[in-house]
Design brief:
The complex is a heterodimer of chains A (about 270) and B (about 550). By secondary structure, chain A is mainly alpha-helical. Chain A has helices at about 10-40, 50-55, 90-100, 105, 125-135, 145-150, 155-165, 180-185, 195-200, 215-230, 240-245, 250-260. Classes of the chains: A mainly alpha (about 270), B mainly alpha (about 550). At the A-B interface, helix 1 and helix 2 of A face helix 9, helix 15, helix 16 and strand 4 of B.
Chain lengths: ~270, ~550
């Protein structure tokens, strides 16, 4: 027999090979798409075709009922790699002018004396997101919300770029440096708590997470408590609320005290 | 007739060098997350190491072994000089450049995405391009194996293709087709995002593409091992292959059913329909068939050797086997690990049973036992068997070789058995740190400690392996003669066309890929709104 005759029904290897393969495929398909779907008493199918579509993973059309209105607004900020890329000097200058009105709490050089966050050298993405959330109402604060509500998209971007441009308060040592507590470097794996340092510096930094070194202890503690109680809810996918809820009061204290005691110049440089 | 010895040696040496590095990283990983290690306080370093370990062990090491062994088979089984030597060197250098290109971003912490890529995680572009180069380099080998067989066929019309070459080409075709899945994932999904052309990625579709590669790649790793079972072991221990046809059927069965089964890796993924999961599960069960055929045939072949050596009785022949022969030892160890690993695999492929061990350390234990154990121990055996023919020098220290194989076997059992056990207890995989001080997982500390000790036994064995080969390069010269493969009890003179060519089985492989993957891929590719924002490694 030549190679030409390989794919003919006269060749027993061809007929058996293809036949057995097709038979197995058909039997498993019938089992997987028809028999097994109907073997689930807790699922109802309108027809055999309905069962086949379900087993094949055809996307079901969503129910026509509209989703209930959210009682509170959620964060809608989308950050892409182009959102805040390469600010111009003018943009930073406009941000500096706008920042005059922030100075009373956040300090004229972006360093606060009022238990508000230090913004000098904070990641632009962080300020961008928080201002958006204050503007949309996803995050609210009696002082901040009125400031943010009238800001335009461009003003938010300018402010973010200005503060990111300012040098970090390098020689600022509020308290003696504390050793890293477990919650910062290990987290609590059994409670599903990732280490703080995995996103907020010390270990690694993730997009949208602020660096925390040298920030006000009282402020960080208050924010963790607000996340835990659900009072603050502008964290996308509840990432901070899930963590804060699982923390013990001692861990909240330890994390806030640790970060407050760190000089900001240990923050990893960003390219 | 081994002419291009340098080419084959280059493949083996680069393979074993990167294997040594990746093995060291593996042992370090076992240690650092066990109770005996002090935690580094930096999970990023752990994932960096894990990515390097997986990339080298998954893509570079076995591919180079298969390629080097493939060239050796082509020259010695077909008894003709390799056609396309320049292309072969090009393929080799592509793999070297690709490996270096991939490892640099990993070392810099820019590509800690693990070797399975895990979109929407996106690492540095050069990591992915490096992997693509490795795959492209190996495709050159695939083409060369096919061309060399074709040249031989022209010179020997109608003759039976030697079993070793028949299996080798089957393995190369399997790799060519299975690598297409990861290639599609990289080219259509990941690289556009890594290059900054897109910000979102369809992670579900990417996972399906990867599952196309992820399971059959194991059978590509397995091919050199199975070729060694059939064509080296019986010759090395003085026996004969029990059935040449059975061997060919095993290899073509791998070709047909290794491919359409990868979705059993995504049993927990919601984007695939349950019907397809069932079909893949059923086809995965069929893969046991060629393995069972092989175990039967090889046991029968080994029995022939034992009886020729005067073995008697129903089981008494087992004692007559040449147990001091490293090849016999390697085969026995490989079979034991294949048995346990295969039994575990039956649990992984069962749609329901998988739920209890999915994403636990059980899985890591399973694939280390099969790949690191059953497969890699035969890579050692292949290297030992080929070395005198490649170097023209004798490997004198047989006792050291036996010790090395024993240590690898013991090390792999000590590493993977506790690993399976803690998986059943629910310990998740891909974790950089475990707090064994916590009462909830404190009882697992002992098992994990044993496992880490096993890692160091493996490292010792791996170092010994490299030392034995390096010493073999400086041993006194000794002519090893022509490299030969085992002959069958009934050596075939003519073979049915279907078992002498691959076309029918390649066609079935592609057809089953279309039936089993076509709809899930098409469905995800055409459904709108399935993409998610990419998560860039090391980005701020």
């Amino acid at each position: 027999m030549s190679t030409r005759d390989l794919f003919t029904f006269g060749n027993p290897h061809f007929t058996r090979g293809v036949g057995i393969t097709a038979a197995i495929l058909i039997v498993t398909a019938i089992a997987g798409f028809v028999v097994l779907p109907f073997a689930q008493p807790w699922v109802q199918f309108a027809s055999v075709w309905d069962a086949i579509c379900s087993a094949a993973g055809v996307p079901q059309r969503a129910a026509s009922v509209t989703a209930p209105e959210q009682a509170k607004r959620l964060s809608e900020v989308v950050l892409t790699s182009h959102t805040l890329s390469r600010p111009s000097q003018e943009a930073i200058g406009r941000g500096a002018t706008l920042a005059q009105r922030c100075a009373i709490c956040h300090g004229p050089t972006g360093i606060s004396r009022a238990d508000s966050p230090n913004l000098a050298g904070q990641y632009a993405a962080v300020i961008y997101k928080e201002l958006h959330d204050f503007r949309s109402g996803a995050r609210s604060n009696a002082v901040m919300s009125p400031f943010a509500v009238n800001l335009t998209e461009e003003e938010i971007a300018d402010l973010s770029n200005y503060y990111a441009y300012l040098p970090r308060p390098s020689a600022y040592h509020p308290t003696p440096q504390l050793p890293k507590p477990n919650i910062v470097i290990y987290g609590a794996p059994l409670r599903g708590v990732a280490p703080c340092g995995a996103c907020h510096g010390s270990l690694d930094n993730k997009t949208g997470s602020p660096w925390l070194e040298g920030q006000s202890e009282a402020y960080m503690k208050a924010q963790l408590q607000a996340f835990a109680s659900g009072e603050r809810r502008n964290d996308i996918s509840q990432q901070m609320r899930n963590i804060a809820r699982a923390l013990t009061p001692q861990e909240i204290e330890a994390a806030a005290a640790y970060y407050a005691s760190q000089p900001p110049d240990v923050v990893k440089a960003v390219d | 007739m081994l002419v291009n010895r340098k080419l084959i040696l280059a493949h083996f040496w680069f393979a074993f060098a990167v294997f040594g590095v990746a093995l060291t990283l593996g042992a370090w990983q076992m240690f650092i997350r066990s109770p005996i290690g002090t935690w580094l306080s930096n999970p990023e370093l752990y994932y960096r190491s894990l990515t390097a370990h997986g990339t080298v062990m998954g893509y570079v090491f076995p591919t180079l072994v298969a390629m080097g062994f493939g060239y050796a088979i082509s020259e010695s089984a077909l008894e003709q000089r390799l056609v396309g030597v320049r292309w072969a060197w090009t393929g080799f250098w592509l793999i070297v450049i690709g490996s270096i290109m991939a490892v640099i971003p990993i070392a810099l912490g820019r590509a800690s995405v693990l070797y399975t890529f895990y979109p929407p995680l996106i690492g540095n572009l050069f990591y992915y391009l490096g992997v693509v180069l490795v795959v492209v380099g190996s495709w050159i080998w695939v083409a060369l194996m096919s061309i060399n067989l074709r040249v031989w066929r022209k010179a020997h019309p109608g003759a039976a293709v030697p079993l070793a070459m028949y299996a080798n080409v089957a393995g190369s075709y399997l790799w060519a087709w299975t690598a297409v899945g990861a290639a599609l994932e990289l080219l259509l999904q990941i690289i556009p995002v890594a290059a900054g052309l897109k910000n979102t990625i369809d992670a579900g579709l990417a996972r399906i593409f990867f599952s196309w590669t992820l399971h059959a790649i194991v059978y590509f790793w397995l091919m050199p091992t199975y070729i060694a079972y059939y064509t080296i072991v019986p010759r090395a221990i003085g026996g004969r292959v029990y059935s040449d046809s059975m061997a060919r059927i095993s290899f073509i069965l791998f070709l047909v059913v290794a491919m359409p089964i990868g979705i059993h890796h995504t049993f927990a993924d919601p984007q695939v329909g349950a019907g397809f999961k069932f079909i893949h599960s059923a086809f995965t069960a069929l893969v046991a068939l060629p393995t069972l055929l092989t175990v039967f045939t090889i046991c029968a072949s080994v029995e022939i050797a034992a009886r020729l050596r005067g073995g008697r009785g129903v089981f008494g022949w087992i004692r007559a086997l040449p147990w001091d022969n490293p090849m016999m030892l390697a085969l026995a160890f490989s079979f034991v690990m294949l048995g346990f690993g295969g039994a575990g695999g039956l649990i992984n492929m069962s749609y329901q049973l998988d739920a209890s061990i999915h994403n636990t350390q059980w899985i890591t234990g399973h694939f280390h036992l099969i790949f690191g154990g059953a497969i890699v121990i035969m890579y050692f055996a292949i290297a030992y068997d080929l070395w005198p023919h490649l170097t023209g020098r004798e490997l004198i220290d047989v006792r050291l070789i036996r010790t090395q194989l024993w240590l690898w076997f013991v090390g792999m059992i000590v590493t993977t058995f506790p690993w399976h056990w803690v998986g059943i207890l629910g310990m998740p995989r891909r974790m950089a740190y475990f707090d064994f001080g916590d009462p909830a997982i404190a009882p697992q500390a002992l098992s994990v400690t044993f496992s880490a000790i096993g890692g160091f036994i493996l490292l010792t064995s791996g170092i010994m392996f490299i030392v034995i080969l390096a010493r073999g390069m400086r041993a006194p010269l000794a002519e090893a003669g022509a490299y030969r493969f085992a002959v069958a009890v009934h050596q075939p003179t003519t073979v049915p066309v279907a078992l002498n060519t691959h076309a029918l089985w390649v066609a079935l492989m592609i057809a089953l890929t279309i039936t089993n993957y076509g709809y899930p891929i098409l469905n995800l590719a055409t459904t709108a709104g399935t993409s998610v924002p990419a998560v860039y490694v090391g980005a701020q």
